[in-house]
């Protein structure tokens, strides 16, 4: 897997070795949404390099930027998620413009209350009672 070898950016390979050239602006835009506020959560690799895309795959795979380097499983998960996002953007936006993208890396562990809309008085908010805005994740 080339992402494992170029994870540190020592190979200086271009992103075009793995990804299509028309996907590069989308990957750059997705990467911008994944960067955090601290230096360790910013992508240290030059734009357009394979290491830059590997860092984005690692973030999408669940790596938070701290601790050990991302392993092959995390990189593979992130690569699948990145390919899925790119394919979805292409299907929804066939013109080729780079839309506004909000990628959220997956959280690990407990993320909060199982039913946040039940907090408080136990009633659903009135916006959920409108069938046109009910999210498909209500359970």
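Sequence proposed for the structure above (139 residues):
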């Amino acid at each position: 897997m080339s992402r494992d070898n170029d994870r540190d950016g020592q190979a200086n390979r271009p992103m075009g070795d793995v990804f299509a050239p028309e996907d590069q602006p989308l990957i750059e835009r997705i990467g911008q949404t994944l960067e955090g506020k601290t230096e360790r959560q910013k992508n240290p690799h030059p734009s357009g390099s394979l290491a830059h895309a590997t860092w984005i795959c690692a973030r999408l795979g669940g790596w938070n930027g701290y601790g050990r380097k991302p392993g092959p499983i995390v990189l593979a998960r992130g690569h699948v998620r990145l390919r899925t996002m790119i394919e979805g953007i292409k299907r929804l936006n066939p013109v080729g413009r780079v839309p506004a993208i909000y990628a959220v890396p997956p959280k690990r562990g407990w993320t909060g209350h199982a039913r946040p809309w039940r907090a408080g008085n136990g009633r659903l908010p009135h916006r959920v009672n409108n069938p046109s805005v009910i999210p498909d994740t209500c359970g």
